[in-house]
Amino acid sequence: MSQDLAKRKAAEAALRYVVQGEMLGVGTGSTVNHFIDLLAERHFDIAAAVSSSEASTERLRAHGFKVIDLNAAGPLSVYVDGADESNHQLQLIKGGGAALTREKIIAGASAVFVCIADESKLVDTLGAFPLPVEVLPMARSFVARELVKLGGEPVLRANVITDNGNPIIDVRGLRITDPRALETAINTIPGVVTVGLFAHRPADRLILGSPSGVREVV
Ligand code: 5RP
Q: At what angle do helices 54-62 and 30-41 cross, to 10 degrees?
């Protein structure tokens, strides 16, 4: 419950980045759900949202927000999304909610990426949270073997298929001391759609919530 309150506080603090009348990138997860609900509760007037998942699209539309395709939106000024882990450089592990591919695309298309999370997500070294990797179905076993060569312990996420129709491999046992190098290495394995390491395009702001308040890391 206190973690949920911390998520809501972080989400609330991100509202100040929302520009009324403009398009907004919106991510996925329980922290973002608070953000979407707050946008509605506080009557924010955005032109449209670009969403990173079917789940967020449904929630946005249920509140009456217009949701459009990224191709129709063009560059976005702000993207608000959660994370499973962040280091002090604002490099992230994402994909616990299986939306990593669309999240990485929208982050790449946005000028400012505001990451919202409860304070437990800030770590010195990424990797305690299993690293999600979305793969094409036929490449699942091959990619898993390649991930073992990189020092990880790959586990197929049970009963999960992404919005793009692909399985996810969660990689345990990694201590990620060079996130950019690992992101590049995993990206170059044939069959990998997206690795949930956001190191080449980290967040620009990290808002960490706790039950008593928020702090912002830039
Ligand atoms: C979804 C994500 C989420 O942002 C991440 O899993 C954090 O979720 P939550 O806000 O529920 O802790 O990357 O793919």
A: 20
Q: Is 216 a catalytic residue?
A: no
Q: Does 82 contact ligand 1 (Cβ within 6 A)? A: yes
Does the pLDDT value for residue 123 go beyond 90? yes
Cα(98) to centroid(ligand 1), Å: 8
Question: Which atom belonging to ligand 1 lies closest to the Cα atom of 95?
Answer: 14
Q: What share of the chain is helix, strand, coil (3-state, %, to 5)?
A: 35, 30, 35
pLDDT in tens, 180-208: 999 999 999 999 999 999 999 999 999 99
State the number of CA atoms in the 13 A half-sphere of 197 facing the CB: 27
> 43: Cβ–Cβ under 8 A, 6 or more apart, which residues?
none
